[in-house]
């Protein structure tokens, strides 16, 4: 592990902070440390939440705060249950990761020296302790003697194919963003795979999405105590998290809570959804493997204390592969499932878009110029070496055309909509070369969080730091005023005709420009995509 990463991980432990301040040349004295600590206490009506200085030390962090009752025992596979925030809470360490089976490390050809570290932090190969008692969140806010002026809130939903992932990673640490833009940053865990998307006909299909909604309810109810404005919450998701954020306007149309949404590399059209019948068959397979059969008592049996979460995960591995429609990716057996309540079929989403039957929230969609630069790793790890034409179609279908379709209809319905494409290929974040991994899936998140050095162990270049500043300012402007903040920075609202697609990091510089989306969307009509409409200009 690079020295920077060692420093970062230890700095997350409050007990090491003074040691590091001395040994790394930090300027904070113990007196200053104690002064800052006094500002790291959040007081609600019934609770005092004790935090501590973060990295940088101008920011307070509160880690591992429960936002719902532990989903254990009879609450396994149940809807999240609201729990009161009471008494003194020492929020000094991350909560447990939700149960999952992380992918194994893979030596990709021509990998860079930083590849293994970046990949592990992105896909959660960090050996964090797992538990079903995992519904916790984390908050970062710049220190202040007064919290009367409430700040915009940015809440992240991590990716991971609805199967894996965590908020406990340098990838989503909120300290740098909170310090740079004076916003409150929140990250949280939610149930995934069979625990979040069980497929059982006896319970809700998409519990993981309801966990996310419960977390946002908690943020709305309590974030003012941390300096955040409950009326200005923006949720941001990456990959499957982006699909969840995109879906928010449909699933929670009547009470979305949030003021704005931002999707990084994914939306409602990007990834395959499970049919309810197939999800139920996969559930019954796991239940039968564990001796619970397929009867009216199956759910009660699966909640037995004699069945551990690890044994459930082991049984999930025996589920037959789910048929997919693309050679570039596999389909998880337990993930977002069509239930016509929280998740809809592709034709239903198209219908809702055409009739504007969704919450008209301000929305930004962004994806990378070379999304497949990441997906090629998992494909080769599974023994699939694909021709370039397959990857070209994958990038168009899952990202370019998916974004074009949804942003077209959102903007046509009058919802403030913005569309962007990330172009940069920084050396310190590169996964392999040659050929370069390019502007791959997820890499732009490092620009928003400002964590590229924490993630890669290599300091950013001057131009990379400048682009980080540009993107952090833009994301903070959106959070402060989702409808108009980006326009104040010269970003046009998206429209399919004319120049309205914002490109970030052009030619791997700090340059931002605006171009016509048709230069990328022109290939979409010929792909015969189920979500494409002839009305969409291309």
UniProtKB/TrEMBL annotation:
Classification via Gene3D superfamilies: alpha/beta hydrolase
Enzyme Commission number, as recorded: 3.1.1.-
Keyword Hydrolase: yes
Molecular functions (GO terms): hydrolase activity
Domain Carboxylesterase type B: 49-355
Root EC class: hydrolase
Keyword terms of this UniProt record: Hydrolase
Superkingdom to which the source organism belongs: Eukaryota
Pfam family, one: COesterase
InterPro entries: AB_hydrolase_fold (IPR029058), CarbesteraseB (IPR002018), Carboxylesterase_B_AS (IPR019826), Carboxylesterase_B_CS (IPR019819), Type-B_Carboxylest/Lipase (IPR050309)
Coiled coil stretches, renumbered: none
Family: Belongs to the type-B carboxylesterase/lipase family.
Protein name: Carboxylic ester hydrolase
Taxonomic lineage from the root: Eukaryota, Fungi, Dikarya, Ascomycota, Pezizomycotina
């Amino acid at each position: 592990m690079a020295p920077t990463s060692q420093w970062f991980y230890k700095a997350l432990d409050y007990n090491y902070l003074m040691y590091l301040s001395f040994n790394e040349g930090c300027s904070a004295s113990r007196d200053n440390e104690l002064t800052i600590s006094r500002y790291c206490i959040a007081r609600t009506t019934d609770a005092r939440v004790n935090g501590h200085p973060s990295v940088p030390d101008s920011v307070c962090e509160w880690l591992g705060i429960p936002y719902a009752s532990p989903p254990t025992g009879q609450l396994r596979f149940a809807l999240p249950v609201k729990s009161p925030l009471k008494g003194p809470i020492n929020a000094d360490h991350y909560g447990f990761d939700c149960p999952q089976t992380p992918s194994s490390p893979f030596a990709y050809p021509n990998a860079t020296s930083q590849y293994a570290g970046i990949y592990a932090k992105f896909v959660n190969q960090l050996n964090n302790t797992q538990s079903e008692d995992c519904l916790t969140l984390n908050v970062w806010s710049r220190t202040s003697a007064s919290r009367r002026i409430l700040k915009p809130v940015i809440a992240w939903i991590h990716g991971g194919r609805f199967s894996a992932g965590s908020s406990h990673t340098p990838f989503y640490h909120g300290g740098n963003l909170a310090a740079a833009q004076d916003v409150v940053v929140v990250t949280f865990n939610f149930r995934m795979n069979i625990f979040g998307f069980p497929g059982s006909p006896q319970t809700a299909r998409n519990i993981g999405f309801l966990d996310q909604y419960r977390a946002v309810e908690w943020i709305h109810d309590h974030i003012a105590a941390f300096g955040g404005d409950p009326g200005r919450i923006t949720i941001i998701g990456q990959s499957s998290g982006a699909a969840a954020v995109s879906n928010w306007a449909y699933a929670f149309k009547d009470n979305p809570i949030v003021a704005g949404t931002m999707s990084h590399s994914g939306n409602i059209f990007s990834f395959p959804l499970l049919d309810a019948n197939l999800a139920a068959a996969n559930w019954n397979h796991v239940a039968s493997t564990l001796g619970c059969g397929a009867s009216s008592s199956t759910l009660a049996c699966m909640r037995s204390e004699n069945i551990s979460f690890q044994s459930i995960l082991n049984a999930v591995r025996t589920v037959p592969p789910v048929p997919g429609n693309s050679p570039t990716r596999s389909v998880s057996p337990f993930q977002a499932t069509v239930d016509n309540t929280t998740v809809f079929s592709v034709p239903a989403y198209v219908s809702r878009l055409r009739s504007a039957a969704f919450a008209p929230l301000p929305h930004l969609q962004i994806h990378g110029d070379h999304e497949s630069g990441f997906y090629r790793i998992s494909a080769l790890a599974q023994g699939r070496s694909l021709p370039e034409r397959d990857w070209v179609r994958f990038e168009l279908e899952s990202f370019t055309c998916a974004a074009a379709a949804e942003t077209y209809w959102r903007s046509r319905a009058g919802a403030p909509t913005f569309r962007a494409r990330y172009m940069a290929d920084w050396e310190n974040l590169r996964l392999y070369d040659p050929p370069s991994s390019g502007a791959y899936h997820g890499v732009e998140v490092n620009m928003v969080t400002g964590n590229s050095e924490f993630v890669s162990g290599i300091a950013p270049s001057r131009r990379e730091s400048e682009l980080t500043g540009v993107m952090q300012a833009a994301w903070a402007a959106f959070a402060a005023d989702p409808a108009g903040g980006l326009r104040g920075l010269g970003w046009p609202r998206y429209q399919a005709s004319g120049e309205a697609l914002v490109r970030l990091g052009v030619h791997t510089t700090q340059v931002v420009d605006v171009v016509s989306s048709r230069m990328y969307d022109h290939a979409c009509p010929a792909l015969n995509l189920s979500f494409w409409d002839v009305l969409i200009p291309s």
